[in-house]
Design brief:
11 strands, single chain, Rossmann fold, 5-stranded parallel β-sheet, 4-stranded antiparallel β-sheet, 2 domains, Arc Repressor Mutant, subunit A
Length: 246
């Protein structure tokens, strides 16, 4: 398959975007997951509504693809609960359903879904809707470059610069900085960073995060340069939201 330079840039920049797929039809879930992963997204797939709620409580993704009819808790009820919580009020949600009636589509959108796809649907159309929704709601997640003060992270070239200095980071430290730079001011616990950077299945001690944060700080800040990473005692780490401000 031939890809344009825009497609390649999108694939590179989408590598950190996390999608939770909640679909109880195994074949359809496999098909959607395959196509999302082919575009560079990190996908977690669950088949039950109650299991989805556990995943969402642990660590909210960047986008949810949510089937209407699910065992455990229905997709429409999950959507309602997500919109009722401050932490997930703006979480992008695409509702997938076999219900074709206009009244049902209106109900889904009224509950808080951002988009609505009726089965059977075209997978390329769903992928296009995912990209469009992320562009509108999470531009920082698909942006090719992230900036803060004199710090510049380029997702395409995988380079980090501070002023005129190139900072050489390994893949793990790059991802660690990327996640924090996407959400300046947000405090990430060590467990959250382990999940985001190393993956849920990684058997790594939380102290590993401290080691990588310490190494990242040394690479980012030389001499009297200001440290952009803030330690929050008893909670974790954050990229300082005031970094680069006068």
């Amino acid at each position: 398959m031939n890809r344009t330079s825009e497609d390649i840039a999108h694939l590179a920049s989408a590598s950190a975007v996390r999608v939770l797929l909640v679909e109880d039809e195994a074949d359809l879930a496999l098909l959607i997951s395959y196509n999302l992963e082919a575009e560079g997204y990190v996908v977690e797939s669950v088949a039950r509504g109650d299991e989805a709620e556990l995943r969402l409580a642990e660590n909210a993704p960047d986008l949810v693809i949510l089937d209407w009819m699910l065992p455990g808790v229905s997709g429409i009820e999950i959507c309602r609960r997500l919109r009722a919580r401050e932490a997930t009020r703006t979480l992008p949600i695409i509702m997938v359903t076999a219900r074709r009636e206009e009244a049902e589509r209106v109900r889904g959108l009224a509950i808080g879904a951002d988009d609505y796809v009726v089965k059977p649907f075209s997978v390329p159309e769903l992928m296009a809707r995912v990209r469009a929704l992320l562009r509108r709601s999470r531009p920082e997640r698909i942006a090719e470059r992230l900036y803060a003060g004199d710090l510049d992270l380029d997702r395409v070239t995988r380079l980090v610069r501070r002023s005129d200095r190139i900072i050489h980071l390994g893949p793990t430290d790059f991802r660690l900085l990327e996640y924090m730079l996407e959400r300046p001011g947000r405090v990430f616990s060590r467990a959250q960073l382990l999940d985001l950077v190393w993956g849920r299945s990684a058997e790594i001690d939380e102290r590993t995060v401290d080691v990588h944060i310490g190494r990242l700080r040394k690479r980012l800040s030389k001499s009297r340069e200001r440290d952009p990473i803030r330690t929050v005692r008893g909670a974790g780490y954050a990229f300082d939201e005031s970094f680069g401000r006068s």
